[in-house]
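fyi for ur records
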Amino acid sequence: MKRILLFCLICIMHTSGLIAQIDSTQFLLKGFQDGYVFYKDGRQFQVPMNYSLLIKKFLFIDQNDNNNIKEFLEPEMVATIKIGERIFLPTKDGATEVLQMDPPIFVQYRGSMRWEGKNVGYGGRSETSAVDSYSSFQSGNTVHKLETEKLILTRIDKIFRIERNGKQYRFINEKQFLKAFPEKKEVLKEYIKKNDFDFNAIDDVLQVYNYATAL
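which gave:
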């Protein structure tokens, strides 16, 4: 049964081919890690997984099919993905991690990329040179082109999401966070300043958020 279900998944390309085109630094996690994918209809699989910040997809290694890297079939049917102790919700905007459920807070990851550029002689590189080599991967019945020039991950943006009084708030910095707590703004500003919180650090954001909800 497991083999039959795995055959229902879409093969993108061989592991060696994908890693050659998508540098390992362009993944959210350090290497493919054992995880579970849970479908809304009750199906579940245990496979090594990772999330590509470049193509914004969860990928897995099919150890029963020559270690090919594949994309899950029917991504809209995936309910949750668990990798280690981390829980992810696949959304149209990309990977969203559940940081905690009470009080609930989520974070979405987005990678910022730039072209490394081509050699232009005398040891220099041009980031504006035309990209003329492509590879492709298949998703469903659609074939997508993937540029094979090396992309460099410059940063990972963390977009936090919370809900308060029936309204959703998204924030990446202190100013946006404080909009969710207008009546506690001054107290929170002092707390943030005193503790020198970094809104790009998940632990810091959790601490200030839990403090705000407890006021």
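Residues 1-23, 119-138, 140-144 have pLDDT under 50 and may be disordered. thats all i got for now
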